[in-house]
Structures are given as C-alpha cells and as structure tokens.
Predict the structure.
Amino acid sequence: DLLEVKTALELYRSDKGVYPDATQFPTTCGKGVNFTDGATIYMKDVPCDPKDPTTNTAYTYTPVAGSANSQYDLKACLENARDQDPNIDSSDTTCAAPLKTFVISNP
C-alpha cells in the first residue's frame, strides 16, 4: 500500500513540479476516497493504514517543513513492537504505544 501511495505522490509531483500540500492529501481512506487535484485522480480508493482497518485512518502524509513541498514524510503504524526496521522513528508519536512509527522520506 505504501508503495502505491508513494507512486501516486510521484505522479502528482511529475504533473505539478512539487508534492501536494498536507491539505491536498486525503486524511480519510477506503473505498470512494480518492487522491485528486480536482481534475486528475492520482489514486482511487486511498488505502487505509492497516493498524486498525475499522477506523479508516489514512497513512500520515506530511510535507517536510521548509522544503517548499519538494520533500515529504509518509508514516504508517507497525503493529509489531519488536520490529527493528531502520525506517522506524522511535521518537515519533504519530502511533500510540506499543505501535511503532514507520517513516518513508522522499527524496
């Protein structure tokens, strides 16, 4: 799912020259929730963070401050408290304990 979201963000950047503002990326997800600029649909049915599919919580998209939308962080919650992936940000509080925050940064 994260790769699909990343691909949609790259398509947006290819068209616009920058990544979207935080307000342009959906904060909800699921069937019928699309990532669009009003004219172009970059992703249909934006996937939910599987940490709890009943909450319809989207992955957290944040443009990097001061980057003029040329960089972003995409965050997901990992359910495995023992996961040691190098992309885990243990100082990030996006996910409630004991979940860990997995971060994809681009570029």
Notes: The radius of gyration is 14 Å. The chain has a mean pLDDT of 89.
